[in-house]
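Thread: Newbie trying to understand structure tokens

Hi all, I'm a second-year student working on a class project, and my supervisor (Dr. K.) asked me to get a predicted structure for one chain before our next meeting. I've only ever worked with sequences, so writing a 3D structure as a token string is new to me. If someone could post the tokens and maybe explain what I'm looking at, I'd be very grateful. Here's the chain:
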Amino acid sequence: MNIERFFYEHPVFRLDEFAAAKSTAGSLSGQSVQSSLQYYLKKGKIMRIRRELYAVMPPNKLATKHVVDPYLIAAKVVPDSILALHTAVSLYGLEYSVFNTFTYYSRHKTKAFHFQGCSFRPIVMPSVFEPEKEKGFLAQEINRQGVNIKVTTLEQTFVDILNRVGLSGGWEEVVRALDNMTVLDIERVIKYALAHDNAILNAKVGYFLEQRSKVFSASQEQIMKLEAHRPSIPQYISQDRRDSTLIKKWNIYLPNAVINRSWEENLDDF
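---
Reply by user tm_fold:
Sure, no problem. This is what the structure looks like when written as tokens:
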């Protein structure tokens, strides 16, 4: 592949992608790959984001002034990256607050890093994404700046942010994101939730589906599939047990702030 075409199609790229492009162009040696990268770095055609991750510089723009799309960074940092949790919520335009932390699922052991004021945090890929376990839930691809990137589906995102509330911005952010969702494939939500084999998660998903059953057109028959796999005895889902109320149907203690949506009351003070 012509290198200029590669740069056009890969505004953010990994070393292995660049090496593959060089291979098709007829240059196979590792030294050639590294020499080429150094050449384009010195020429100001590319900039280094971190080890083995680069961004293409727009013509006539200084590296200090070029802001690289953080979603592309998170999507490209490792080959199997799947944008997830609040990052997926934000990508779908459902967020309440803007975060500068971008989370992605991966099977690779990589460290979190910072770039241009943003934090990039890898999260261990949930086992339900493992095809060898006969679950193999697939994320979807969306196009961003001409690049296909992977992100959890809306149905997966619904379940994931309830499963990892702390990594999704906390309860207020999660509930507001759920409120912004208007279309879901309920059967996919239920199938994905049950695949986690987590009774508390089933109860949380069931509770919030029931709260918005009219919006999502979720039937009682569907919700009962989750109810059948709720905790057998009451379970707390918050560390602050003093400020929680038992939801008997689902056998979970929910924080009162979530039940009462106390953050909405605070807005009335302004």
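A couple of things are worth pointing out once you decode it. The two ends are 58 Å apart (CA to CA). Residues 30-43 form the longest helix (14 residues). Feel free to ask follow-ups in this thread.
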